[in-house]
Each structure stands twice: as structure tokens, then as C-alpha cells.
Specification:
Elements (H helix, E strand, L loop, with lengths): L6 H4 L3 H22 L1 H9 L21 H6 L13 E6 L9 E5 H17 L7 E4 L7 H13 L2 E4 L5 H10 L4 E4 L1 H13 L10 E5 L5 H11 L2 E8 L4 E7 L6 E3 L4 E6 L12 E8 L10 E10 L11 E2 L10 E3 L2 E3 L1 H10 L6 E8 L2 E9 L9 H19 L4 E5 L14 E3 L4
Parallel strand pairs: 3-4, 3-5, 5-6, 6-7, 16-19, 17-18
Antiparallel strand pairs: 1-2, 7-8, 8-9, 9-13, 10-11, 11-12, 12-13, 14-15, 16-17
Helix pairs in contact: 2-3, 5-6, 8-9, 10-11
The protein binds 5'-O-[hydroxy(phenylacetyl)phosphoryl]adenosine.
The site of 5'-O-[hydroxy(phenylacetyl)phosphoryl]adenosine has 22 residues, from helix 6, strand 7, strand 8 and strand 12.
Length: 432
């Protein structure tokens, strides 16, 4: 028997969901028009006023927002409420000086936590569960989102954050964690560590809520077998709240989008044209209830497919597939967003030429990042000591920029093959 956190919402009729979306969109457009001059200007440039948006059927008229807009408007340009009414920020792993910073009022935090609570209940969670949150806490939304959702459901919440595997396993066994929330790659690593230490009999986990990075069906099977659990997907992005924008139910066939808060569209990433249900394209979200960071038609750059078929679980909200890739060059490495431009900025700043390759792989379910870079002819050296010291300072500079370790391999000038067309900067060997 399926459980729902907010049954009247999660199983509402399609007519009801449409009525909510129509009404909330109209209100939200007025809110943005009145309070976000940056977006008002974009609407004016298209000759639009709030009167042009009478419901979801008019959504396509509104201008898009992109990550570039967020950077241009950084930090307060898209704020929809006075700072005195905001209670929290979260941020994505950044680019040079300009991270994406998202703001929340208390109502925004509440609705986000409701979304995460729905995700926890959808995997069978209730007040008797011990919810082990091993997503990072801090600016990243993973820890805070699932933590808040777990509280709302009434689970015993273990705010573990990421890392310190020994401590994770100790609490997991001593306190009997039943639901694990972390990135799929960390779940796979925990499964291996449990196996190596012969702890499987002492683990009480029954379900896991894994997201923030791409993972395959094969990885799902490995985690399910390794931990003896059911592994569920969860999707979200900082700009739209964080985790819980969409979540999987017991059917494990795509993630229900919380359509009472977010309207999803699929567009052709090249033309911006809205595509019919079932087409593959770029996912675009419009927030219809958020106050402080009310993004309209935000281009996620995630490529996926929407599905409006009825779900056996009884939830009526449409589902999105796993993201199948990106329409930009952002890489997600160990759950951290990495743009090649960030790496290039560090290399140039340190006096290297822009001849480099970024090699991403997944070894034992964990991502690795390597940057192969040519030394400038004037800095070329074949002294091992000098190369090691140069590599170390690049590793440190990259860590400061990206927040994660990247292995650096310095090579002699002209080693990296030149391309006649677009330079091949990224080699992603992960099979996902
Ligand atoms: O990753 C929020 C999150 C935290 C989601 C914990 C799920 C669990 P950002 O750091 O802003 O936010 O990164 C957002 O991560 O645009 C996708 O490309 C990717 N992503 C998120 N969830 C999934 C998923 C968080 N389930 C970006 N599968 C998004 C594949 C995902 N990619």
C-alpha cells in the first residue's frame, strides 16, 4: 500500500494540478514583475506584461533564464524578497568569484523540506526510521534538504555529512540506520567498505535515496545487491531549491516532479522551442511558489524525457527520466559541478598554455579527475623534483578553485594532440 506525505497533493487529479499551476503561475509572474527588475526588463524587452500570462498555456511566451543570467545578476539581482525576509542561502560549487547563490525565505525552506519529506515517504520512510544523511552539509543543498525532510517525516535524523567512512559505519551499525541518503558513488563505496569489513549482517538499511550525479541502472543493481536495499533516485538543483524537485517512488521508473511547486517543460536546446510530452530535450523549470528566488523558465541544461503515463504507485504528478547528459560542458565529478573554464582559468593564471585535457573516469564506483597539461616551452624542465613541485602547486590551485582533488600530469610542450576542429578538452571515460 503506497504511502503519501501529502496525499491530497501527491494524488490530486490532473485537473486540480492544472488549476494550481494556472493560478500560481499568474500570481508568481506578478510577484516577479513587481519585485525582480532584472526579469521585468527581460519581459519588457519581449513586449510582455503580467496580463499576457493567464495560465500555463502562456508559459512559452516568457523569456528563459540561464546560469549566465544568474552570474550577471549575482548576488542579489534575482532576489524576490527583501533580505530581511530571507533566512538562508545555498550555493553551487563555484566558478571564478561568481558562484550561484540561491536565497530562501522560511516559506521556501518549508516547501523544499516538504518535497524532501515526500521523497523519504515514497521510499517507505516514517517516524520509526533512522535516516542517515551522508550528503555534504553546508553550502551544498544535499545535506540540508534531506535533513529537513527527515525531520518533517519524524525520522530519527543522523546528520552525518559526507566523508569519515569509519564513523559513518560505526553510527550505521550502532544506531541501526534504515534509510541512507548520499551520492550514488558514495553509496557504492560504503557498500564495498561494509563488504570488506564483514559488516553486512550488522546493517539494518532498507532503502537509499541517491542523487546529485548521474548513475546507471547497473550501478543501481550493484548498490542494491551490495547493501541489500532498494536504491531510489532523487533529482534537484540549487537554483530551484535543491534535492526533491523530483523523486522516485516504489515503481523505480522515473522521478515524480513536484508539480504543485515546479512546472516542467522540455525544449530543444538549440532553438528554445517547446517539445511535446515524451520528447527528449532540455529540462526547464518554472518555480510557482518560491518567494525569495522565484526563477521563471530556468534552463537546467539537463537532457531528459518527461512521462505523463499513470504510475502504479498512485501518484499523479508527471515523471522525469534520469538526466541523460547535459547541453553544456559542465561535468559532475564526485557530485561537484566542474566547468572546464574553471580549470582553464587556473592554468592560465599559473602561466600554462591552454593545451590541456581533462580526463574523468570512474574507478570502483568513485569518480577520478585528472588534468593533463603541457608545460610552456620557457618553463619546460625534465627535472623530476621541479616537475613534482610544479604539479603540486597546480593541484593546490585547482583544489582551491574546484573544491575537489584533481590529479595533475605535466607533459612536455606539443605532447597533446592538436585537433583540426574543436579541441578535445574533455575525455569522460565513465560508463553511465
Ligand atoms: O546536486 C542537488 C541535489 C542534492 C540533488 C542531493 C539530489 C541529491 P547542484 O549541486 O546544484 O544540486 O547540481 C545540480 O546535478 O542540474 C544535474 O545535472 C545533477 N543532478 C542532480 N540530481 C541528479 C540525478 C544538487 N538524480 C545538477 N541524476 C543538476 C543525475 C543529477 N544528475
Amino acid at each position: 500500500m503506497a504511502k503519501y506525505y501529502q496525499p491530497e497533493i501527491e494524488t490530486a487529479s490532473r485537473e486540480q494540478i492544472k488549476a494550481w499551476q494556472d493560478e500560481r503561475l499568474v500570481k508568481q509572474v506578478q510577484h516577479v514583475w513587481d519585485n525582480v527588475p532584472y526579469y521585468r526588463k527581460k519581459m519588457e524587452e519581449k513586449g510582455l506584461t503580467p496580463a499576457d500570462i493567464q495560465g500555463v498555456a502562456d508559459l512559452h511566451k516568457l523569456p528563459f533564464l540561464t546560469k549566465d543570467d544568474l552570474r550577471e545578476a549575482y548576488p542579489y539581482g534575482l532576489l524576490g524578497k527583501p533580505l530581511s525576509e530571507c533566512v538562508r542561502i545555498h550555493s553551487t560549487s563555484g566558478t571564478t568569484g561568481k558562484r550561484v547563490v540561491a536565497f530562501y525565505t522560511q516559506a521556501d525552506v518549508d516547501l523544499w523540506e516538504d518535497c524532501c519529506a515526500r521523497a523519504i515517504v515514497a521510499v517507505g520512510g516514517d517516524q520509526d526510521d533512522v535516516c542517515h544523511v551522508a550528503y555534504g552539509y553546508g553550502l551544498f543543498t544535499g545535506g540540508a534538504g534531506l535533513h529537513g525532510g527527515s525531520h518533517k517525516v519524524g525520522c530519527m535524523t543522523l546528520p552525518m555529512s559526507s566523508g569519515s567512512t569509519d564513523r559513518q559505519l560505526q553510527f550505521m551499525t550502532d544506531l541501526g540506520s534504515t534509510i541512507l541518503c548520499c551520492t550514488p558513488s558514495y553509496a557504492a563505496y560504503l557498500a564495498e567498505s561494509i563488504h570488506e569489513r564483514g559488516l553486512k549482517d550488522q546493517i539494518k538499511l532498507k532503502a537509499g535515496i541517491f542523487g546529485a550525479e548521474a548513475w546507471s541502472q547497473k550501478m543501481r543493481e550493484d548498490i542494491q545487491n551490495g547493501l541489500g536495499i532498494k536504491a531510489y533516485d532523487i533529482y534537484g538543483l540549487t537554483e530551484i531549491s535543491g534535492p526533491g524537485v523530483a523523486y522516485e517512488c516504489e515503481a523505480q521508473t522515473g522521478m515524480h516532479i513536484n508539480e504543485d511547486h515546479f512546472i516542467a517543460e522540455i525544449i530543444n536546446p538549440d532553438t528554445g522551442e517547446v517539445l511535446p510530452m515524451g520528447s527528449k530535450g532540455e529540462l526547464v523549470f518554472t518555480c510557482i511558489t518560491k518567494e525569495a528566488f522565484p526563477l521563471l523558465r530556468y534552463r537546467t541544461r539537463d537532457i531528459c524525457v518527461l512521462n505523463a503515463e499513470p504510475c502504479p504507485c498512485g501518484r499523479t504528478h508527471i515523471k522525469m527520466s534520469k538526466p541523460m547528459g547535459r547541453s553544456d560542458d559542465m561535468l559532475i565529478v564526485k557530485g561537484v559541478n566542474v566547468f572546464p573554464s574553471q580549470i582553464e582559468a587556473v592554468l592560465l593564471e599559473q602561466g600554462y598554455p591552454a593545451n590541456y585535457q581533462i580526463i574523468v573516469d570512474r574507478v570502483n564506483h568513485s569518480d577520478t579527475l585528472e588534468v593533463m597539461v603541457e608545460m610552456a616551452p620557457e618553463n619546460f624542465s625534465d627535472s623530476l623534483a621541479k616537475i613534482t613541485s610544479m604539479e603540486k602547486s597546480l593541484v593546490d590551485a585547482l583544489k582551491a578553485m574546484l573544491g575537489i582533488y584533481a590529479k595533475v600530469r605535466l607533459v612536455a610542450p606539443k605532447t597533446i594532440a592538436r585537433s583540426e576542429g574543436k579541441a578535445v578538452r574533455i575525455i569522460d571515460k565513465r560508463k553511465i
